[in-house]
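Quick review question:
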């Protein structure tokens, strides 16, 4: 099957430079049959990065892409607490650069309307937005989004492609929270490969709204692929989840950039 991995990082991987790290990750990707890999964020991580910090991390991703443009895509890491700087970085990395989407983490709750200029611009560019979401039993961080937050965002921007990262960790709640938000897909990477996750997602959302991703190097390719490969769903649905859905989502911006898929 065609496998496009939505969710990759350079942290947690051996190597002194980003070039060394991506080369090692591509060896693992080849071993697991992964044709395309999306990367976002460099290192060291910061939960509330300054513009200087998120520009530096995007530079690391850009450096990696420069040698692997036939295999790798990048999402620009932004911090909506700095709206003007984030919009400028969006122009640098996506409009004038090779990146094809945006990653938002825990620095700003996505239900806050102050994020709207970034979301609107992404919509104009056909750039999907991967928003980290989580539901912690101990309580989320002060600005950490939940799937309910991305559902609120989707109401304001019903035509922009949004991705509910991790499906909130607690996927039984996350799937239900975004069920009525038709422009929200779920990223299933970065949690334990528990039985029933993908089956429920397909049943409640439809396979077309489910995206495979590994969250490596924090997780292994094998454990995250197992969520899909071992799921009790049709082969057709597995093909959609493992690659066809992400390819379809990225096709408009890839076409605009003249990228060969």
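Suggested answer, residue by residue:
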């Amino acid at each position: 099957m065609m496998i496009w991995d939505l969710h990759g990082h350079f942290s947690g991987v051996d190597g002194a430079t980003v070039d060394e790290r991506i080369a090692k990750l591509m060896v693992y990707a080849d071993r697991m049959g992964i044709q395309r890999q999306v990367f976002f964020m460099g290192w060291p991580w910061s939960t509330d990065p300054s513009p200087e910090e998120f520009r530096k991390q995007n530079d690391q991703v850009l450096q990696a892409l420069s040698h692997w443009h036939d295999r790798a895509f990048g999402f620009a890491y932004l911090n909506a607490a700095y709206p003007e700087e984030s919009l400028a970085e969006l122009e640098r990395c996506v409009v004038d650069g090779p990146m094809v989407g945006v990653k938002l983490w825990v620095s700003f709750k996505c239900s806050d309307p102050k994020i709207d200029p970034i979301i609107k611009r992404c919509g104009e560019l056909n750039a999907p937005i991967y928003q980290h979401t989580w539901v912690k039993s101990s309580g989320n961080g002060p600005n950490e989004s939940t799937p309910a937050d991305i559902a609120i965002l989707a109401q304001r921007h019903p035509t922009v492609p949004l991705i509910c990262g991790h499906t909130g960790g607690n996927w039984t709640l996350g799937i239900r929270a975004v069920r009525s938000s038709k422009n929200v897909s779920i990223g299933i990477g970065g949690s334990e490969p528990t039985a029933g996750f993908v089956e429920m997602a397909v049943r409640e959302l439809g396979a077309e709204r489910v995206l495979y991703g590994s969250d490596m190097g924090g997780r292994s390719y094998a454990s995250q692929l197992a969520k899909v490969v071992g799921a009790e769903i049709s082969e057709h649905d597995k093909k959609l989840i493992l690659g066809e859905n992400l390819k379809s989502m990225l096709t408009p911006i890839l076409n605009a950039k003249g990228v060969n898929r």
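Why it works: The radius of gyration is 17 Å. The chain is about 45% helix and 15% strand.
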